[in-house]
């Protein structure tokens, strides 16, 4: 067996496309909510791979599922189905509003499928005039050209030529704006029940219910992008279950695989009928490896112990952040649900979220940002309380450093 070549952060600049600017350190090992870099330095992980590593790193249930399936069957074309995909789909439909599941490899692909399905449904049910898609400013739905255009952040979609048409954006939580724009020509409304990338912005319950009612009135499909909010992240299996507002189509990914790439689109039997054989597909979507891992994650996450534990950990995070803020006066508010939390910076520290992220890394704790003004926390759903305490101790040192 050939020796592995030695690589460093400098190798990135020599061989990788420069669309990312990764940290100086290179992580090489993870266990639970701790990560170690090439120099053996240890970090507490409050980032979770951007709300992906819902059971932390190398959870035994995931390692066992991957190893077992890896010794059985890796890949088949979708000319065949497979047992892990059928088991996972059965568990997802049994635990949600949905009757049918389509598997993909990522959140963007799940959202792409949702949008294509909505357009196809509208065309076949109502004709060519019903094609408008309404979404929200600061929304984020992926990086394919369709999903990035529906996402309400022009910085991500500008500069690539003509965009897909019949897509309009309005402010989040603005029901009057939606009512004014929506008509019988609207095909779908796409939204996150809690905006992640846009700054961890919660929806008002009355707003979500109002969106649902307007969709019903105009015969419009409601698509919930639960890529970041889903699979236990907010303290229920899916965030919509906490609001009691049921979508027609739901996209899920990130935590679904716990770190293994997988996405899924969930919908009802009647709507699913419009993706007939040949209308959409994915080479790797629903592969046995991904589905076996996701099933193992599902079995751990979809339990009262874990979901109630998320809510308890939310309170612990908020208490720590409140204590730090009482001392240093840097945050306006802490918002979000469960373990999708955002600490919004006050006007004295406006635009400096990345300074806090960088200082945190220097102190040995990994955090995220959600735009220039929000420090975001999306740790493992089962992060031990001792790791929360230790990570917050390090984060406080980082805050002190930025405050100077």
TrEMBL record:
Pathway: Amino-acid biosynthesis; L-arginine biosynthesis; N(2)-acetyl-L-ornithine from L-glutamate: step 4/4
Localization in the cell: Cytoplasm
UniProt keyword terms in alphabetical order: Amino-acid biosynthesis, Aminotransferase, Arginine biosynthesis, Cytoplasm, Pyridoxal phosphate, Transferase
One example GO MF annotation: identical protein binding
Name of the top EC class for this enzyme: transferase
Positions of N(2)-acetyl-L-ornithine binding: 143, 282
CDD domains linked: OAT_like
EC annotation from Swiss-Prot or TrEMBL: 2.6.1.11
One GO term describing the cellular component: cytoplasm
PROSITE patterns noted in UniProt: AA_TRANSFER_CLASS_3
Additional observations: May also have succinyldiaminopimelate aminotransferase activity, thus carrying out the corresponding step in lysine biosynthesis.
PANTHER family according to UniProt: AMINOTRANSFERASE CLASS III, SUCCINYLORNITHINE TRANSAMINASE
Name of this protein: Acetylornithine aminotransferase
């Amino acid at each position: 067996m050939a020796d592995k070549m030695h690589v460093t952060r400098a190798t990135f600049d020599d061989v990788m496309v420069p669309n990312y600017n990764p940290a100086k350190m290179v992580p090489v090992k993870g266990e639970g909510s701790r990560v170690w870099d090439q120099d053996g330095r240890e970090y507490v992980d409050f980032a979770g791979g951007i709300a992906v590593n819902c059971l932390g790193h190398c959870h035994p249930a995931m390692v066992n599922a991957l190893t077992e399936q890896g010794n059985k069957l890796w890949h088949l074309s979708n000319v065949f189905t497979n047992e892990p995909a059928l088991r996972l789909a059965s568990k997802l439909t049994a635990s949600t509003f949905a009757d049918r599941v389509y598997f993909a490899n990522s959140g963007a692909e799940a959202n792409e499928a949702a949008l294509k399905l909505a357009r196809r449904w509208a065309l076949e049910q109502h004709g060519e005039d019903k094609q408008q898609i309404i979404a929200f400013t600061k929304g984020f739905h992926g990086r394919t050209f369709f999903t990035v255009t529906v996402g309400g952040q022009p910085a991500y979609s500008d500069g690539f030529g003509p965009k897909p048409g019949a897509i309009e954006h309005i402010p989040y939580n603005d029901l009057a704006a939606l009512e004014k724009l929506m008509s019988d020509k609207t095909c779908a409304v796409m939204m996150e029940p809690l905006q992640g990338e846009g700054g961890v912005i919660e929806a008002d319950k009355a707003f979500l219910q109002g969106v649902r009612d307007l969709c019903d009135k105009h015969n419009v499909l409601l698509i919930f992008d639960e890529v970041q909010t889903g699979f236990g992240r907010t303290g229920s299996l899916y965030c919509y279950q906490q609001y009691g507002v049921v979508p027609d189509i739901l996209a899920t990914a990130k935590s679904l695989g716990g770190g293994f790439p997988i996405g899924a689109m969930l919908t009802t039997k009647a709507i699913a009928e419009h993706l007939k054989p040949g209308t959409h597909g994915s080479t790797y979507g629903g592969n046995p490896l991904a589905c076996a891992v996701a099933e193992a994650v599902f079995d751990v996450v979809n339990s009262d112990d874990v979901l109630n534990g998320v809510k308890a950990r939310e309170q612990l995070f908020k208490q720590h952040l409140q204590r730090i803020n009482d001392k240093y006066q840097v945050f306006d508010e802490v918002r979000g649900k469960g373990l999708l939390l955002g600490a919004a910076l006050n006007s004295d520290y406006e635009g400096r979220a990345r300074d806090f992220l960088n200082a945190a890394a220097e102190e040995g704790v990994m955090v995220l940002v959600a735009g220039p003004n929000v420090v975001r926390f999306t740790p493992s759903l089962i992060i031990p309380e001792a790791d929360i305490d230790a990570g917050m101790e390090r984060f406080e040192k980082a805050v002190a450093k930025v405050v100077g």
